Amino acid sequence: MNPKDIIKGRGAQKNTNNRFSEFSSELRDDFLEFCRLEGEEANPNKTQYLPIFPKTIVNKVDSPDVGMTYSLNPYQGCEHGCIYCYARNSHEYWGYSAGLDFERKILIKKDAPNLLEAKLKTKNWKAATIVLSGNTDCYQPAEQQFKITRACLEIFLKYRHPVGIITKNALVLRDLDILVQLAKDNLIGVNISVTTLSETTRRILEPRTASIQKRLETIRILSEHKIPVNAMLAPIIPGINSHEILPLAKAVCDNGALSFGFTVVRLNGAIGGIFEDWIRKTLPDRADKVLNQIKDCHGGSLNDSRYGLRSRGEGKIAEQIHDMIHLAKRKYFKDKSFPKLNTSLYKQYKDGQLRLFDE
């Protein structure tokens, strides 16, 4: 494929049809010719911010593989454009494609802070860590404009409620003032995703994310301010970043991370087709090798839906990945651990002086 035909700054290189829609679409040659003659763009590569108005904002997470009980997502869709992102499929529930639409049509939940406060004030709510970005990154580019994540952090601080963050964007440092206050009471844990040490790989795999150097610097700065950091070396993709496990673990350790997690890539739903289209266009020389190795980790398929196995993989290649992970933890994280967050302060900040009359 001609490199000029690659859509720059995007992960997905096409829009897949929405499995929930009775309609499908395609870019026909006659339409493309019409656009050329009219001087119009057939497929403008611009990001749209679309407001939505959900009734609730805190989601119960039932999956045993995710490692969280509650999540909060200020945005749906993600401009970072990570080609492997499992959240792509959720965009189909909103009537969009898991491909380019996921990166270019960002749904904005401006009322998220108010909905969060209403949830924390409900009578039956008991403190449990709520993770920002269980689905899409809360510090993606839209946050620079809308500042919804910062407003939510202010609510968590107001009620002294534990909160986790998952991001691959250095924008999290903008809110260092709030994070430091949360950390004083052990109310915050930050997960920084670092998938490669190669900028060349990062640019095609995660096109609109912070540079690797910025992410490592973010881990260091957060750690220096006594904010606990877990690094997410995820996903591990055979043939793309699987050879980097030890250097990645060393890099995040050297910058202050207290622990790291990982997953073996799986390409569920529409993501399999999106990923295969992407790799055949961007890395054609190794496409078959990578796809076959991913299949080897999931019983001959690009996807695996079995709880307990779908994020770990099985088979010889998955075993090799697990062996390297265990070695990395013994070598670099033997005497480190990520703290459990504090849930004891929330009740008194929720009830205020009213608690005095209950005792």
TrEMBL record:
Q: Which PANTHER family has this protein been placed in?
A: SLR0285 PROTEIN
State the InterPro entries in the record.
Answer: Elp3/MiaA/NifB-like_rSAM (IPR006638), MJ0683-like (IPR040086), rSAM (IPR007197), rSAM_sf (IPR058240)
Which stretches make up the Radical SAM core domain?
Answer: 64-301
Name-wise, this protein is PA0069 family radical SAM protein
Q: Does the keyword Iron-sulfur apply?
A: yes
Keywords assigned by UniProt, alphabetized: Iron, Iron-sulfur, Metal-binding
